Each structure stands twice: as C-alpha cells, then as structure tokens.
C-alpha cells in the first residue's frame, strides 16, 4: 500500500481503512502483544501514583483499565493518565514520544462497546501507531524542540485512528475523525515533572475517543488539516521539513518500540546503564568518587529540567538525581521515586558531584550518554550509543515479565497478575476481548470503593 497523491487526511483514512491483520508480520504482532503487557503493567502501577489516583478519583472510575460504568471518554482519560504516571512506558523514535500510552488506553476504553477480537485490537493499534508516526515524520525534531510534548500532540492522531479502526468506522468517518483531532492536539514540555505531564497522555487518549465518536455521528473536519497554510504542520512547527508518507512499509516493523528499563525520562537511560556498567566492571566505591560527568544531547537538556528536584515526580527528570541514585543504591527502580528513598541523604550528597553537560557534537535528539567518573584511584569512562531495551536489543521475555510483576504486585494479587499477563501476551489468539475485562479476572476485588489499589 502506498498513498502519495491525495490530501493527507485522505491518505491516512485510506491506510487505516485498508489495513488488515493479515498485513502484519509475526514479529509485528509479537511487538504489539508485548506493548499491551508493558502498558497495562505500568498503568496498574500508575493507579497508585498521585496523577493516576487523582485522575481516577475525578471521575469515580474503578481501576478503569478495562471497563466500568463510566463513559469511554472518562475511561480513556483515566487509563491514559495512569499509564504515563510513572514514566515507565515505551518509546518510539519514529514519533519522538511515547506511543502505547495513547493507543492502548483508548482501545481498552472502547472495548465494552465492541465485539472485537484480539486480532482486531492489534490491527487497530498498528493503524494508530503508523498514523501518529507518519504525521510526526515531516516535523521532527523541530516540533519537540519548539516545546511541544510529542506524546500528546502526535498521540492524539494515533488514538483517533486506533479507535476509529476498532469501532469499524467507514472511510469517510475515519477521514473526518482525523481532521477533527487536528484541533485537539496539545501539551507543553513546561509541564514536565508535574502531574500534567501524564495527563497529556490521558487527554490524547480521550480526544481520540471523542473525535471518533463525533465523526461516527456525522461531524466533519477540514480538508487540509495538516498541509494547509494554517494547518497542523505550519502551526506546530515551521511547516513540513520532510515528505509525508504512509503505507510504504510499516514503521512498527522497521523500527519497533523501545520498552523502558527504568521508570524515568528516557533521555537518562543510556547514562544510567553506562553508570551501572562502570560500577559492575570497576567495583567503584561511592565514597571514593570525586566527580561524575554526564554528557548527552541538547534534547536531554530540554527535557531534564531539574538539577535539584523537590518532589519525586521532578526526580524522574533530573540527571543528577538518577545518576546519584544509581551510584549509591546500584539500580533505578520504582522505589527510587518513592518518598522514603527520595530523601536519602547519601543520594543528595552524591548529586553535588554530578555534572550534566550537553555534548554539542551529538544530534539534537540523540539518546546516547557518556559517563566519566573520577575517583582517587583513577578515571573511568563509558559511552552507550543506545539505552537498553531498543527494538534491536529488546528486553528479554524474562525482563519484561519481571517488569510486569514489579508493577502489578503493588495493586493486584499475583494470581490475578498471572491471568492478565497470559491474556495479553497471547492477545492475537483471543476470538473475543471481552474476557479481558478487569472484573472477569477478579481485579476489582483488590480495589477499594474509591478505585485505588490496596
């Protein structure tokens, strides 16, 4: 499939309408199943984070991950916010953001309104992923560099395409839904480190449901929502810097997803991994460290706004904090950002020795990191071009399984977690996804009346 002549909204609608499960490779299906495992895991853990808890409480949702009595719009917002609350969700270099938190939540939110199979869900995910990446490509990295949170601003289009596909909208309705979504894109990087950063994902997920449902009821959008003089690309960047294309091979198949190994900003991951390797290879005693230099990209400098974070959510966007935590405790985990650890005096003292430096020789949005540790016994240096968990060096099955249980043990019994994991890792084999409802696996029994995990 290749669409290069018609208006962008028409090309997108053609692609989404004509995509079928049979078009997907076995590797692509496996990638999507892993994305569901990963996203549902971090979403469950995110229910206990302030952002996830408050987003659920605002609408009275009960866990919200699969179904409850609330509207699909409210479910999508709550799930999306919880999914991104820990900053532990996956990445895509093709969109400069977090794709699955804008795809999995709206799909889960509309499941009760469909008779979809696991294959339908997977196909809808791919339709959404390819849509948001195709819209992103002509304006990255300028769009992100200008201050927009790409997860939200591109993710709203992915959410819309995914929901429109799952609800089986006609081609005309899909076209209108995507055009409507162009007036819903929002999210500023100035809100990084606050609860509003994960809310961006929730708002994008909700808008995808809203745009699709409006279109299904005859609502219309513009003909040149992207390429027009006042279209998305002109307003949210400086106009397209590369040619738009969709349908000429799948981005998901070529570049895949990057599953996170650490629950913090992705721009810290290569540096964290380099620090771990230096400690392991040289048995560095934290008490012997004089200075630590961390060199990475300008985009990392834009995103990592807190040299001296005051609250755990800011710590996720602090290079000094995560590197100091790695050196003092040996690992960055969910507990690194819990209040009892956040006040660790040894970590705070180590932060004073960490210097974060922009490497002007790197491309703006590079994810690499170089760590140089100077001690009384010598200087040790490690460079990592990529973080752990990339598509070509993915988290192993065991590592993903361990991450899933690290997240879910806080919220649901292991027996329930086992059932959810097995359902999601074999999603393509389910003829109906109604069995994925949280009630059917007993998750509701582990929740209080306010919907917060105990």
Automatic annotation (TrEMBL):
Family matches, as InterPro entries: MmgE/PrpD_sf, MmgE/PrpD_sf_1, MmgE/PrpD_sf_2, MmgE_PrpD, MmgE_PrpD_C, MmgE_PrpD_N
Signal peptide: none
GO molecular function: lyase activity
Domain (MmgE/PrpD C-terminal) ranges: 262-420
Highest taxon of source: Archaea
Domain annotation MmgE/PrpD N-terminal: ranges: 11-244
Similarity remark: Belongs to the PrpD family.
Name of the protein in its database record: 2-methylcitrate dehydratase PrpD
Protein source organism: Halostagnicola kamekurae
């Amino acid at each position: 499939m290749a669409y290069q002549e018609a208006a962008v909204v028409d090309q997108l609608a053609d692609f989404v309408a004509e995509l079928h499960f049979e078009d997907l490779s076995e590797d692509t299906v496996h990638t999507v199943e892993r994305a569901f495992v990963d996203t549902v895991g971090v979403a469950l853990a995110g229910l206990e984070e302030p952002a996830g808890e408050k987003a659920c409480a605002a609408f009275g949702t009960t866990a919200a991950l699969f179904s409850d009595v609330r509207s699909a719009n409210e479910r999508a917002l709550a799930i999306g916010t919880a999914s991104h609350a820990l900053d532990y969700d996956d990445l895509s270099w093709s969109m400069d953001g977090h794709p699955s938190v804008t795809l999995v939540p709206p799909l889960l939110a509309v499941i009760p309104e469909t008779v979809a199979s696991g294959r339908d869900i997977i196909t809808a995910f791919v339709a959404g992923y390819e849509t948001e990446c195709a819209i992103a490509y002509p304006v990255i990295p300028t769009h992100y560099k200008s201050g927009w949170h790409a997860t939200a601003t591109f993710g709203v289009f992915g959410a819309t395409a995914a929901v429109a596909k799952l609800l089986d909208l006609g081609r005309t309705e899909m076209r209108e839904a995507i055009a409507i979504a162009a007036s819903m894109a929002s999210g500023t990087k100035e809100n990084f480190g606050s609860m509003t950063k994960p809310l961006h994902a929730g708002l994008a997920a909700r808008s995808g449901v809203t745009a699709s449902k409006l279109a299904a009821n005859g609502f219309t959008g513009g003909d040149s929502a992207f390429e027009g003089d006042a279209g998305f690309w002109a307003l949210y960047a400086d106009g397209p810097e590369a040619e738009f294309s969709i349908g000429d091979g799948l981005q998901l198949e070529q570049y895949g997803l990057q599953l996170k190994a650490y629950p913090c900003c992705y721009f810290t991951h290569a540096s964290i991994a380099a620090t771990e390797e230096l400690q392991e290879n040289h048995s560095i005693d934290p008490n012997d460290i004089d200075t630590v230099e961390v060199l990475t990209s300008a985009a990392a400098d834009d995103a990592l706004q807190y040299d001296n974070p005051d609250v755990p959510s800011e710590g996720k966007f602090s290079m000094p904090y995560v590197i100091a935590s790695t050196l003092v405790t040996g690992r960055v985990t969910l507990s690194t950002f819990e209040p009892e650890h956040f006040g660790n005096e040894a970590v705070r003292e180590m932060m004073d020795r960490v210097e974060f430096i922009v490497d002007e020789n790197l491309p703006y949005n590079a994810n690499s990191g170089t760590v140089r540790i100077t001690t009384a016994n010598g200087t040790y240096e490690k460079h990592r071009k990529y973080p752990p968990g990339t598509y070509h060096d993915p988290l192993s099955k065991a590592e993903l399984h361990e991450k899933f249980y690290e997240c879910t043990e806080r919220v649901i019994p292991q027996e329930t977690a086992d059932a959810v994991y097995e359902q999601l890792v074999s999603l393509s084999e389910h003829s109906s996804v109604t069995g994925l409802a949280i009630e059917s696996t007993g998750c509701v029994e582990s929740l209080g009346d306010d919907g917060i995990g105990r």
